[in-house]
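Long-time lurker. I teach an intro course on protein structure, and each term I like to show students one example going from raw sequence to a predicted 3D structure in token notation. This year I'd like something fresh instead of my usual example. Would anyone be willing to generate the tokens for the chain below so I can use it in lecture? Attribution to the forum is fine with me.
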Amino acid sequence: MKLPGNMQSMMKQAQAMQEKLQQDIAAIRVEASAGGGMVTVKMDGNKNCLGVTIDPEAAGDAEMLQDMVMAAFNEAVKKVEAESQKKMSGMLGGMGL
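-- Reply from a regular --
Happy to contribute to a lecture. Here you go:
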């Protein structure tokens, strides 16, 4: 199906904007910590873990360490989602939506 020229141009522009948004989101980097900084998690915009730092003092209590790692990961995910939302709303605002 052939779209009118203007509509086809708009579709290409929307696709380019979507690709840019995906790149911008992938470039997000966040860091979150738990236990007063005893556990730190670094995460990218695709929610991939880039690193985990654990203070040696936290290693003595496995259950507490598990809780801190989980809390740090959950906080990192929230930060990624907030940053992604900001980027999406900024882009949609630029489109007049």
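Some talking points for your students: Helices lie at 5-26, 62-94. Residues 48 and 72 are 13 Å apart (CA to CA).
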